[in-house]
Specification:
Blueprint (H helix, E strand, L loop, with lengths): L1 E5 L7 E5 L8 H11 L5 E4 L14 H14 L5 E7 L3 H13 L6 E5 L16 H22 L9 H20 L9 E6 H7 L5 H6 L4 E6 L11 H17 L1
Parallel strand pairs: 2-3, 2-4, 4-5, 5-6, 6-7
Antiparallel strand pairs: 1-3
Helix pairs in contact: 2-3, 4-5
Length: 252
């Protein structure tokens, strides 16, 4: 679902903020970022469908990426120039970037904020057992309950048991799509900012990021904090980093 955080038309390429592992975009965080980056930059968020209780999320990351690009085009947004994602949301950013590149034109810049050090994905249907599904559903439910204060609001009423049920089911399906997705090499530019342990893992030569995913120009910046502090005390650092990487990309 398209969220117009700062819908504008103009010369600047669109910045797209992708949802994370639970399918939700932190809208308030997006507004804070918009104020930090300036009022002349088009910014849209993309959230998984399913939180309205009437639809279901895309079954695969590839399908979700196609839908998101179609939504942007239908809204009249300029071709995305920057795709940004937090944590496991990196898979949606990379898949959208691949599809944009396949359609021709300049490859978008991908900005990844604290992605997992060891990327998940590639799970077979045999590995996704009922126990795994149940675990993800329970994990999603607890995450939703804990996220209200941290994200500044959710696209449903967490105190309504029925709404919490369908939101947990939606998030579980997004998690499963990430588990199934096998991340392929991306030859376009990727800039990553990551917390201590994740940065160290991403930088290991024989680990998946460098061995399998980072096939083009890339940078890695280390954050001296834990994952839970990224958009707390370190939000300004992350926003400054995003602004600087976008400015450098524009200058090329």
């Amino acid at each position: 679902m398209l969220l117009p955080i700062q819908p504008l038309s103009g010369a600047k390429p669109t910045l797209v903020l992708l949802h994370g592992q639970m399918g939700i975009v932190a809208y308030d965080r997006g507004r804070r970022l918009a104020r930090h980056l300036g009022s002349d930059l088009p910014i849209y968020g993309l959230e998984s469908r399913g939180f309205d209780g009437a639809s279901v999320p895309a079954a695969t990351v590839e399908e979700a990426a196609r839908e998101y690009l179609a939504e942007l085009a239908a809204a009249g947004a300029a071709r995305p120039g920057v795709l940004a994602a937090v944590c496991e949301g990196y898979v949606f950013a990379l898949e959208m970037a691949r599809q944009l590149a396949a359609a021709g034109g300049r490859m978008p810049l991908v900005l990844l904020v604290d992605p997992p050090g060891y990327p998940p994905g590639g799970a077979s249907e045999e590995q996704i057992t009922p126990a795994v599904v149940s675990h993800y559903r329970d994990h999603a439910r607890q995450w939703m309950k804990d996220a209200v204060e941290r994200l500044g609001g959710l696209p449903f009423d967490v105190t309504d048991a029925r709404q919490l049920d369908w939101a947990s089911e939606t998030a579980m399906k997004v998690l499963l799509s990430i588990c199934r997705y096998a991340t392929a090499p991306y030859p376009g530019p990727i800039d990553i900012i990551a917390t201590r342990d994740r940065a160290e893992q991403i930088g290991r030569p024989q680990w998946p990021w460098r061995k399998r995913i980072l096939a083009g120009p890339w940078t890695l910046t280390k954050l001296d904090c834990e994952h839970g502090d990224v958009f707390g005390a370190y939000a300004g650092v992350v926003f400054d980093w995003m602004k600087s990487r976008m400015q450098l990309a524009e200058a090329v």
